[in-house]
Design goal:
Elements (H helix, E strand, L loop, with lengths): L24 H11 L4 H24 L1 E2 L6 H13 L8 E4 L6 E4 L5 E5 H6 L2 H17 L1 H17 L4 H33 L2 H13 L8 H12 L4 H12 L8 H13 L2 H6 L14 H18 L3 H25 L17
Parallel strand pairs: 2-4
Antiparallel strand pairs: 1-2, 3-4
Helix pairs in contact: 1-7, 1-13, 2-6, 3-5, 5-7, 5-8, 6-7, 7-11, 8-11, 9-11, 10-14, 13-14
Length: 354
């Protein structure tokens, strides 16, 4: 771990910030819709906390090191700083697990906690680690663990229903949609990491190192960006189809590194990052009044914008069909969760600290 590149006093605290401020529109629309299901997220959170949450926490409590003022105090301070900047109602526990593979995750539906591996701690400098911890705090603030638990349950159910063709196909379509949401939730929390660290260069370095290792002198921001452009602009439809199958058929829950890098770069360049730091962001107190219909329109528009930017020939081929499906999905969820004019504000909005 190396020295800081941004002094603590230069960081802006974001009191009362809603997770909607940094959530990717496709992630945000799905979360708002699921939170409108009265009591559903509360029930799922309680069921998870009764068994898997308790079991996992005990496992890490017994086999890993919990960060504190006495153990990994530098990481503990990053945790406190990030929690303060994002104004989390409760500071999650942070465990350091012995594992050479760089990784980090947020676990638990009722009281989420963060796990980082020693491989990641050894790989990143202080500001890069600050970004990663901020990313995980974003998962906690958004309550992603509740709905990720749902995805795990559905995957297990799909295995049991594999013999029943019609039911299996229908369930797989739901799972595929949730896996797409999961990938967008990762883009959301890359933004949360940027807000917590407030050092865009460190966020970019973290993604580059996770992809290519610690030798920063061998890495180039511009060249990595060109990789992202080359991946997007494949020469023909066949490679576009291969990309699609690699992402969906294998059940990938994380976008590829070059995609995350380019998306984070774009989000900063378009000015939303600076606008939030200037105090222009949605507040948590307004979350219950959010319209599901409006959020789905925003989600559909984000896909249309990304298709418009993409040079992938497969995206161009299916853009019209996909736009129609996105519009139909927005109307469906508007009907299920509330009228488009008022968004159906009843129901449970979910705890911001999930």
């Amino acid at each position: 771990m190396q020295g800081m590149t941004v002094p603590d006093r230069a960081r802006v605290r974001l009191p009362g910030i809603s997770s909607r401020a940094y959530e990717h529109p496709a992630d945000r629309s799905a979360l708002v819709a699921m939170r409108k299901l009265t009591g559903f997220d509360v029930l799922l959170r309680r069921l998870a906390s009764l068994f898997s949450d308790r079991s996992l926490r005990l496992d890490y409590l017994a086999s890993s090191v919990r960060a504190s003022q006495e153990q990994f105090p530098h990481l503990y301070q990053l945790l406190l700083d990030g929690s303060s900047i994002l104004d989390l109602p409760e500071v999650p526990e942070l465990f350091i697990s012995q594992d050479p593979i760089p990784n980090a995750m947020t676990i638990g539906a009722d009281k989420p906690f963060i796990v980082v591996t020693t491989g990641l701690v050894d790989l990143l400098d202080t500001e890069e680690m600050r970004h990663v911890i901020g990313h995980e705090l974003g998962h906690a603030l958004s309550g992603h663990a509740v709905y990720r638990t749902m995805l795990l349950y559905l995957r297990a159910l799909a295995v049991r229903l594999a013999w029943f063709a019609i039911g299996y196909i229908g369930l797989r379509m739901i799972i595929a949609a949730m896996e797409e949401w999961y990938r967008k939730s990762e883009l959301s929390c890359d933004r949360a990491g940027m807000l917590a660290g407030q050092d865009p260069a460190a966020g970019r370095r973290a993604l580059m190192k996770i992809a290519g290792g610690s030798r920063m002198s061998e890495l180039s921001h511009d060249e990595f960006h060109r990789q992202a452009q080359e991946y997007d602009a494949v020469p023909d439809v066949r490679e576009g189809l291969i990309k699609f199958l690699q992402l969906t058929a294998q059940g990938n829950t994380h976008p590829y590194a070059v995609i995350r890098f380019a998306e984070l770069d774009r989000w900063v360049a378009e000015g939303e990052y600076e606008s939030i730091l200037a105090g222009d962001y949605p507040r948590r107190e307004d979350d219950p009044d959010v319209s599901v219909g409006e959020e789905f329109k925003a989600g559909a528009k984000s896909y249309q914008d990304s298709w418009g930017r993409s040079a992938d020939p497969l995206v161009g081929l299916f853009k019209g069909v996909a736009e129609g499906a996105a519009g139909a999905g927005g109307k469906l969820f508007s009907g299920l969760f509330g009228r488009p004019d008022n968004g159906g504000t009843g129901g449970s909005e979910g705890s911001p600290s999930d």
